[in-house]
Amino acid sequence: MSEAIKLFIEDARAVSIEDGAKILGLKFKLRGVEHPQPCPHCGGSDTFAFNTRKEKWNCRAGGIGGNDSIGMAAHCEGLDVKSREGLLEACSIVLDRDIPDEGERESDEDRHARKKRLEERRVQNDAAFAERVASQDEFRERERQKARGIYQSLTALRTAAQMHGRSYLRYRCGGYPDATWLRVGADVTYWHGQDERGSPLALYSGPAMVAPFIMPDLVPIGCHITWIDLAEPPKFRPKLFGLTKDGIAAGLVEWAFGDASPLAIDLADGLYETLPSKKMRGSKKGGLIPIAGHPQCSRWVGGEGIENGVAFGVWEGFRADTFYFAAGDLGNLTGPAEPSSRFAHPTLKKPDAKGSARPVMVAGPVPKADQDADDAMWVADHVSELVLLADGDSERVMTAAAMARARARHSRPGRLIPIVWPREGYDFSSMAAEAVAGDL
User: Fold this and answer.
1) Is 38 left (phi over 0), alpha (psi -120 to 50) or beta?
2) Is a pLDDT exceeding 90 seen at residue 194?
3) pLDDT tens figures, 202-231
4) Which domains does the chain possess?
5) Sign of the alpha-carbon torsion through 43, 47, 52, 57
6) Do 368 and 336 form a contact (C-beta atoms < 8 A)?
7) 298/301 Cα distance (integer angstroms)
8) Could you tell me which of 36, 176, 360, 425 has the fewest CB atoms within 10 Å of its CB?
9) Cα dist. 266→247, 257, 263, 274, 290 in Å?
């Protein structure tokens, strides 16, 4: 190898991932060091990424990655760096200059054939991606239709002949709203698992409270289902169990509602699992659960769960100027955090791979800069006061960071966003339930 070729390769190795990405025409986010995107060679939606701080690139679809611009250029352009010609062509791309005269080059015919193959692959990738997106959109809309069907088939909780929903909220929250958002059914099916033909199995059917996830047009995009069992205090929800893969391998039988609870040792060994008594159908991304009032109100009050929103509304008498809501979960309330805002928990630690205790890292209070509008629940522009309800029975530091992030996410000029905390170790519904128990 001549000195000119050696220098040519070393110059290419010195090109940073950032500079190489610019030459290749790859996409950069507005902020941050990680830049996910469709792979120029393999397609997909976010299968390819490069990191300008770690000086690395990776393609999950192709199962390949590296820490220099030469390999990144070779992958994007369909070159084989194991061959002399492929290596020098990749170096030429990132340096944006010709290969020295004594270096091996692709023939015009080989280059034309490679470019043609790459373009055909890109067209195929684009078509496959468009097909996947259309299929996902179709599936999402079918699920939304199912969720609307579940919700619209039921009757308003406040007027339904079934008392389960009103009793559940009285026990858990001290009362219920005089509103029609929440609905109730006496026989809502709980689907879990599949039969031999792949069809869903009905594990349980019983009373349930159902709430919609809505967008600004107030059309439901999903529904939140809470199954109710008034004979199971303090949560008043049925105990449901499912057989795990390990349980199937051990030859155990499926648990059926009405059976005794699985043995504690089988649960501990992961042969059975406790199933959630709350489920969501359809979509929740960017939506919220209405509880009482109307989104046209200028004052909004809500937090993560329905029960907390109801309990707080009962406490302040469901004010006529207020819209009460729930986000469904903390992530939908706050949105994602800016990675650079992560911080070490002041006390919590966990062992690393070598067994050394390391501080637990906490998602920070700063919202991610380039997130989409539906990465968190929507809040109408006219809202002048947004009261956020925190949970006092969750880990305090992590919850405080999340609530600060929610405040920053939903902040607007002139909008007040107080964060209200219950007593330490409680949430608002457990405080209300304790008060109800004391009155009995």
Assistant:
1) beta
2) no
3) 999 999 999 999 999 999 999 999 999 999
4) 3-121 (3.90.580), 154-238+277-439 (no CATH)
5) negative
6) yes
7) 10
8) 425
9) 8, 17, 5, 11, 39
